[in-house]
Amino acid sequence: MAEGTLIDQARRAYHALWDTNAKGLSQTRTTLLRAVQIAVAVVRDVTDGQITLRAMSLVYTTLLSMAPLLALSFSVLKAMGAHNSVKPMLLNFLAPMGDKGVEVAENVILFVENIKVGVLGSVGLGLLIYTVISLVQKIEASFNFIWHIQRTRSYAERFRDYLSVIVIGPVLVVSALGITASMMSSSVVQAAADIVPFGADLLLLITRMIPYVMIIAAFTFVYMFIPNTRVNFVPAMIGGVVSGILWQTIGLLFGSFAVTSAQYDAIYSSFAIMILLLIWLYLCWLILLIGSDISYYIQHPTRTHIVRGTFVLNNRDKEHLALLMMLEIVRTHVRSERPWSADELTRRCQVTGEAVDYVLELLCNEKLIAPTAEEPKRFLPARDTANIGLDEFLLCLRRSERRLGGLREQEDDMQQLAYRLAEEFDTALSTQSGKRSLRDLVA
């Protein structure tokens, strides 16, 4: 009985968290409320299992792509004379594994050095690049899932964007490390370190903060670049800060665990080092995806109450929602008011953000509306609303999914009867709606 009461209280508290009106609260309490909502939403998404499942998938892809990725990076950095920076970066990444991390890094570097990119041939080089691109593609798919994005980059965009990350990314990391080392050894910094009594302590603090800053900057770049949508800098940076702190903190905890893993050697023998590597890779990907989830909810705070996978929209609801959204967009355009954004339409229509995104994409595909260039995107009619009849609009909605595949016309009598009836429904709909345009309806 007590257990049931506790569960009921937790359920009521959960619903009250989303029902609380933030308008009457102070700025501090509003920020605190948003932070709690985002934290609960992220925990809910992780416990749902989809994020952890994708993190496990990325671990498998990483094992296949690690050597080819490092081989390409090694080749690029070798051309610049900076190939000796690969091993320190790998050692830093595997540092939480302790001595076993050093062993893994040395074996991987030895394997990479034995890969002769020049003698692979065109087919071998193509497979090498494909393996690396597949990793980035898998990462993008995971991020798009978190950001509720159905569309992916085109093949040309993938080739351009992925190769830029693979080729330019290592160069930027090595350059950042070099600039940081130069700054730390400059005369200005050394002079500041000689200041008594806080100079040396300040220099020590800066030295300890550099790994955090580098990790946060890397995460922020990934959160802004990888999803196939526009991610604002502030949400990406906040997600990068949280995930960067988690990365360093969990790295310390995992390092303590790795030190006491001698008992696992007795159980798993030589497989113990592989098991530790798998666990660390899983934690790294999980942290990266959690940070992306945080960035998503910060950029879309109105969607924290939406449970993933609950999006259901039948044909009648689709037509009703699309008509409501289109009329709102036309009305603001006729009155020369500020166009609607996706989040504003979500609040106006009181539906899930996923439903609004689905209908907006549908209307854009039918060339009924078009997004603006500003961020967040706002939506305007794609053509003169006086020339968009209500019957045309409704028929576009009814036929909008045909591009995904449809029935083939056959000579069967029942098939022909079904098509004739569907045409009669379209004619009746056109006759009933009359010749009214969307502009006429909102005038």
Into which percentage range does the β-strand content fall? Answer: under 5%
Mean pLDDT: 77
* Approximate helicity band: over 70%
Number of helices: 18
Instruction: Give the CA-based shape.
Output: globular
The strand order across the widest sheet is 1-3-2
Structural class: mainly alpha
Number of beta strands:
3
Report the major sheet.
3 strands, antiparallel
Low-confidence stretches: none
Q: Roughly how many Å apart are the termini?
A: 59 Å
Radius of gyration: 28 Å
Order of SSEs, N→C?
HHHHHHHHHHHHHEHHEEHHH
Overview of this protein structure:
With 443 residues, the chain is an all-alpha fold. The chain contains 18 helices and three strands. The chain has helices at residues 2-19, 27-48, 50-79, 86-93, 99-114, 121-146, 155-184, 187-193, 199-225, 233-259, 262-268, 272-299, 315-334, 342-349, 353-365, 390-398, 413-433, 438-442; strands at 340-341, 369-371, 378-381. Strands 1-3-2 form a three-stranded antiparallel beta sheet. Strand 2 (369-371) and strand 3 form a beta hairpin. Helix 3 (50-79) crosses helix 6. It is globular, with a radius of gyration of 28 Å. It starts with a helix and ends with a helix. 25% of the residues are buried.
